[in-house]
Predict the 3D structure of the following.
Amino acid sequence: MTDAAYIPPEVWTWNRANGGQFANINRPVAGPTHDKSLPVGRHPLQLYSLGTPNGVKVTVMLEELLAQGHAGAEYDAWLIRINEGEQFGSGFVAANPNSKIPALVDRSGVAPVRVFESGAILVYLSEKFGGAFLPEAGATRAEALSWLFWQMGSAPFLGGGFGHFYAYAPTKQEYPIDRYAMEVKRQLDVLDRRLAEVRYLAGEQYTIADMAAWPWYGALAKGQLYGAGEFLSVHEYAHVIRWADEIAQRPAVKRGRKVNRTWGEPSSQLHERHDASDFETKTQDKVTTP
């Protein structure tokens, strides 16, 4: 805890140095900072993203659609380096006025359709391809959508809350770390209790709810997020770990997790994806080999 309590001023002003590791890209206003058009590839779907948990949701969905035989789900995945501020280029802001990855542009019709926010992209892709990975009606559909929106509302407490103060803030402070650790453990318990009853979040059927939650909570339960596995005692959540391991073995998930990834083992990184063959020929271990 700090020696002196913080007293907010009457009017907040922006301290450009505030924000720790992300101070260079955080700002209190929206809109572009520079002119830069987005590239466009040859496929119907153009994805502009990075292999963070929110980005992985969409690349997993696209790879699952392709695995189901939906040829129209072929896509180009362009890398957006958010640490370098590429999300503030004019083209990206036109695709997503919130300047967050991922952003999808569907060019299969007469006019391009932009879709932003990862949950919206998952629902859009499901509807575009005949309700894939989303039950058609009834209680199971309601369950899938409920868990999808649970993830969308809960993950900011994990990423922007716990992750920021535990891993990225310039100083460690007891109060915010303790507050968000409590909330993240509560969320893990919510998931663990649900997955003690059913195979997947909506029941026995793998859905977009699982695709949304797995990159966040699956990684956390396996100790792969923020180096916080021991701190949060993630071994306690056996049912989440079972679910995370099962999803991780899906071939489409293995592929989707590599797309737009720029860290980890070189063989796990496919910076951009423009063809299915890229998984065999353009991962970083292949690209960097003389």
Remarks:
- The first helix runs from residue 53 to 67.
- The chain is about 45% helix and 5% strand.
